[in-house]
Amino acid sequence: MRLYIDPGTGSMLFAILIGVIGAAGFLFRNAITKIKFLMSGGKSKNLGDGKIPFVIFSDDKRYWQTFEPICRELDKREFDVVYMTASEDDAALDNPYEHVHAEFIGAGNKAFAKLNFLEAKILFATTPGLDVYQWKRSKKVDYYVHIMHAPKDITMYRMFGIDYYDSILLNGKFQIKQVRELEKLRNLPQKELVLAGIPYMDDMVTKFEKDNVQPNEVKNILLAPSWGESAILSRFGGKIITELLKSKYHIIIRPHPQSVASEKDMLDKLMEEFPNSDRLEWNYDSDNYQVLKKSDVLISDFSGVLFEFSLVYDRPVLFANTNFDSSPYDAWWLEKEPWTFGAMARLGAEIKEENLEQLPEILDDCINNPKFSKNRRAVREEIWVNYRHGAEVVADYFINKYNELKDKELKENEKESKKDSKKKKSKDKKTKEKSKNPKNKKTKRKGNK
User: Fold this and answer.
1) Cβ–Cβ < 8 Å for 244, 225
2) Are the C-beta atoms of residues 189 and 214 closer than 8 Å to each other?
3) Residue 26: other Cβ atoms inside 10 A
4) Residue 96 lies in domain
């Protein structure tokens, strides 16, 4: 009888085999990394028990924008960072910072298999889904910290995305209540919540102020949606692009990076129907700074880029009502409408399916009507704590957290040492007593022979 393995099972077994081989290789490379870390300037006193003190994991090259201001600040303070990326062409691999040691650890499941065996004090990431999908908590990582890569509700992640982190760095006070409500509903231990800010947006403000931006002769309209069934391109498809092309403006379409991986067929069809021309361009830059800088109006849905554009560049936005389906997201668990949608209504005009044909007129009004500008400061205060000082706050947090973990470890080691010493003294005492009164010692018998 021939053994039959169905394709699904075979694929799974192959993935497991690759994961095991990759993990074994990583254990070897992890040791090499520690040696290189010391030889290239890492402080041996920081290594303590042999674990890497501080690791940043980036699942995509686009997150270098999120991490770079923090790396720069830690480098100033001579705090060593090992930056592990799942992108072979990540700009972080060529970073200029003496104390930031970057390495490519493989893409996709290969990277996660390696992280599952990582030995580190602190691991810092934007990646949701820790201990939910293929990325598992390593028993040899002491502390996991998450930072948001966009200014919006913490509940806009896919379900359980942040549940198993130890700490979350937030950018708005309202997010604290959201996290605590989810923890209570799911009977989870409370995480450490830190009001950190948005370091990469602080950088954008500084950079934009230095640039001498000239007005565009023809206004640029940027369509930059999120991804998934509730996003603009999924709900409206080519219809919204058709209506935008009826306006007198130049159109730029920037799909969400996750769409490239998860919605490739849809994007290919749209790009074939609406190819690059003098009126329209598709943008896939890894860094969105340049495309945001040259745009006059942004159209989006529930993507955090809407807040980046409105709050950094102080320009008008339109948001699309796509009848957001919260069922795949943590927001589904909470009764209150996500903060994101209420804030968007204060920042710009709403596009609905029934008024899509009036889109050119809505754009004209949005560009010329200043009524939304007064709300931008209020929204900024709600979602952007530690304005222009986020990297400093985050660096302070990590240095203090590392020292806290080391002190805790030292106390535990001292406690264990005292226990061992006490056990040894007790054992020595028993041995001494035993030597004085050996069981095989013969005693004299009383009486006559």
Assistant:
1) no
2) no
3) 22
4) 10-198
Tokens of 45: 């006193």
Mean pLDDT of 178-191: 97
Residue 191 inside a domain? The answer is: yes
CA distance 237 to 172: 33
- Sort strands 141-147 and 167-170 into parallel, antiparallel or unpaired: parallel
Residue 23 falls inside a structural domain: yes
Domain end point (choices 176, 198, 220): 198
The H or E element spanning position 307 is helix 305-313
- Number of neighbouring beta carbons within 10 Å of residue 165: 22
Residue type, 414: E
Q: What is the domain-level CATH number for residue 267? A: 3.40.50.2000
Enter the DSSP assignment of 81: E
Residue 425 resides in a domain: no
Regarding whether 324 and 274 lie in a shared domain, the answer is yes
**Pick from 345, 362, 383: which residue ends a domain?**
383
Q: Is residue 392 part of a domain?
A: no
> 20: buried, middle or exposed (CB in 10 Å: 19+, 13-18, 0-12)?
exposed
**pLDDT tens per residue, range 388-401:** 999 999 999 999 99
Residue-wise pLDDT for 223-261, tens only, equals 999 888 888 998 898 999 999 999 999 999 999 988 888
For 223, phi then psi, to 5°, come to: -100, 110
Residues 208 and 186 in one domain: no
Helix axes 199-210, 305-313, angle to 10 degrees: 40
**pTM for the complete prediction?**
0.77
pLDDT greater than 90 at residue 45: no
Strand bridging mode 167-170 / 250-253: unpaired
* Contacts within 8 Å (CB) and 24+ apart, 307-310: 307/150, 307/151, 307/152, 307/343, 307/347, 307/379, 307/383, 308/150, 308/151, 308/201, 308/204, 309/222, 309/224, 310/347, 310/348, 310/376, 310/379
Burial of 98 (0-12, 13-18, 19+ CB in 10 A): exposed
